[in-house]
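Sequence design from tokenized structure. All designs in this work follow the same two-part layout: the structure record, then the generated sequence. An example of the structure record is given first.
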């Protein structure tokens, strides 16, 4: 099956935490790379006057997602970043549960616990 936005191999929609997410490699945003320019302000000023500068026009993955009909379309790099972040948070939550027990992890998650015990502030 072809990708919704063009030909090629379709990775297909995946489900992360109950959200339907589909990869869309075309979701990129343009940006200017001024790293080859020695003096940025001077180069900008000269560019306005019509002088050619060593500015590269490139594309990077969009940092945003599009939701269309209940499906979230994201660049594949952003999907991988989301998966790794969710895995890191889940690992951290599991570690907290092992160290403090179920109730301690729940209290720490909402802001109460030994470090931030708010009941002692009233006294």
């Amino acid at each position: 099956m072809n990708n919704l936005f063009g030909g090629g191999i379709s990775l297909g929609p995946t489900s992360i935490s109950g959200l339907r997410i589909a990869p869309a490699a075309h979701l990129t945003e343009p940006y200017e790379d001024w790293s080859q320019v020695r003096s940025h302000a001077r180069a900008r000023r000269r560019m306005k006057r019509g002088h050619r500068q060593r500015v590269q026009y490139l594309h990077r993955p969009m940092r945003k997602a599009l939701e269309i009909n209940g499906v979230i379309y994201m660049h594949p790099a952003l999907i991988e970043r989301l998966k790794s972040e969710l895995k890191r948070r889940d690992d951290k939550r599991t570690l907290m549960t092992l160290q403090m027990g179920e109730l301690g992890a729940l209290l720490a998650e909402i802001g109460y616990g030994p470090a931030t015990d708010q009941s002692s502030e009233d006294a």
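Residues 1-10 have pLDDT under 50 and may be disordered. We note this feature because it recurs in several other targets discussed in the main text.
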